[in-house]
Please model this.
Amino acid sequence: MRGFYFVAVALLLLLPACSPPDTFRTLTGSWKLWAFEIPSEGILETEPDYLARSITITCKDRGKKGKYTLSTVTNVIEGEYLLDESGNMEVLRSDGTLFGEPAWGDKFMEAWRKAERYEIQPGQLFIYYNDGKSRMRFEKR
Model:
């Protein structure tokens, strides 16, 4: 009988871990830009080898409105974003330095300003832009 109670308690404690994941998640953490993609065309452009610094985003939110710090190839930018339960996102504000970026950094800044939607998969963050046709792929740091 003691074994039954032990198993029952263990199942009750483990049951929440087996629940399906929420569709809405926080972006909190640090993410490194890995690639630009156009999935419908099979296009994948990964980070060039010659860059002095990778592009990273550090986010902190409570699920809706958050703050970010971008470290681009040559700049540091801070701002705020807004998320909703449907996976939509909006960059609300960006403030920071404005030194010239190489093409990779320019492409990122243009895509970041046009961010529309996000998707999180294990260890990866996708930010969609260009009417959802293009996306940036980030890896969790």
In short: The chain has one domain: 23-140. Confidence is low (pLDDT under 50) at residues 4-23.
